[in-house]
């Protein structure tokens, strides 16, 4: 099963025309809600997320203001992205190709790729499956963590543009 998932993940083709296909806020621990648009703030992330959403094992994780997951990966894993719970569901963008410090622009919002990798954890395994967790870990396709550089509104169907360095 894991090997089949790894093969599916390795054969994903990203179109290069990136956009937002889903937005998820976390109003409470373990609660994931689809939204047509979200407000984001520097130093916070989605304003509708609960205040401890960027904590792990009691500690704040820097650079976890916005989490992003590729729709193509969710489809390969055959899972509804809301179950995973990342804030922005992208299409057309290989998130594993982003380097630390790369910036994405979504409307007026600017996000900077955090140094810390977005690793799959036991929570991911419980939400999806152990095999899926191992497959995204091995392929590096868990998604990406971001700081909010410039806040604003993100809407479903917004374009995502990688900013030049």
Number of helices: 5
Strand fraction equals 25-35%
Structural class: alpha+beta
End-to-end distance: 40 Å
Helix content: 10-25%
Name of the CATH class: Mainly Beta
Question: What is the name of the CATH topology?
Answer: M1 Pyruvate Kinase, Domain 3
Number of strands: 13
The poorly predicted ranges are: none
CATH architecture identity: Beta Barrel
Shape: globular
For this structure, what is the CATH homologous superfamily?
A: PK beta-barrel domain-like
- Give the radius of gyration: 15 Å
Major sheet attributes: 8 strands, mixed
Tell me, rounded to a whole number, the average pLDDT: 92
H-E string: HEEEEEEEHHEEEHHEEE
Number of domain units: 1
Sequence of strands across the biggest β-sheet: 2-1-8-7-11-10-9-13
Keywords:
eight-stranded mixed beta sheet, three-stranded antiparallel beta sheet, 22% helix, M1 Pyruvate Kinase, Domain 3, 13 strands, alpha+beta, 165 residues, single chain
Structure notes:
With 165 residues, the chain is an alpha+beta fold. The protein has one domain (2-162): PK beta-barrel domain-like (M1 Pyruvate Kinase, Domain 3, Beta Barrel). The chain contains five helices and 13 strands. The chain has helices at residues 2-10, 71-77, 81-84, 122-127, 130-139; strands spanning 19-28, 31-35, 37-41, 45-46, 55-56, 59-60, 66-70, 88-91, 103-106, 109-113, 144-150, 152-155, 161-162. The strands form three sheets. The chain has an eight-stranded mixed sheet with strand order 2-1-8-7-11-10-9-13. The chain has a three-stranded antiparallel sheet with strand order 4-3-12, with no helix packed on it. It has a two-stranded antiparallel ribbon with strand order 5-6. It is globular, with a radius of gyration of 15 Å. The model has no long low-confidence stretch (mean pLDDT 92).
């Amino acid at each position: 099963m894991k090997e089949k998932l790894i093969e599916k993940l390795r054969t994903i083709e990203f179109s290069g025309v990136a956009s937002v296909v889903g937005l998820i806020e976390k109003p409470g621990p373990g609660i994931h809600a689809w939204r047509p648009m979200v407000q984001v703030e520097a130093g916070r992330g989605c304003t509708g997320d609960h205040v401890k959403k960027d904590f792990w094992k009691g500690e704040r994780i820097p650079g976890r203001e916005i989490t992003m997951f590729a729709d193509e990966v969710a489809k390969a894993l055959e899972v509804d992205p809301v179950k995973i719970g990342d804030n922005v569901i992208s299409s057309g963008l290989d998130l594993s190709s982003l380097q630390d410090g790369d910036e994405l622009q979504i409307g007026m919002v600017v996000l900077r790729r955090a140094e810390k990798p977005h690793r799959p954890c036991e929570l991911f395994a419980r939400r999806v499956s152990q095999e899926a967790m191992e497959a995204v870990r091995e392929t590096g396709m868990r998604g990406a963590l971001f700081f909010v550089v410039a806040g604003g509104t993100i809407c479903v169907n917004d374009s995502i543009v990688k900013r030049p360095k």
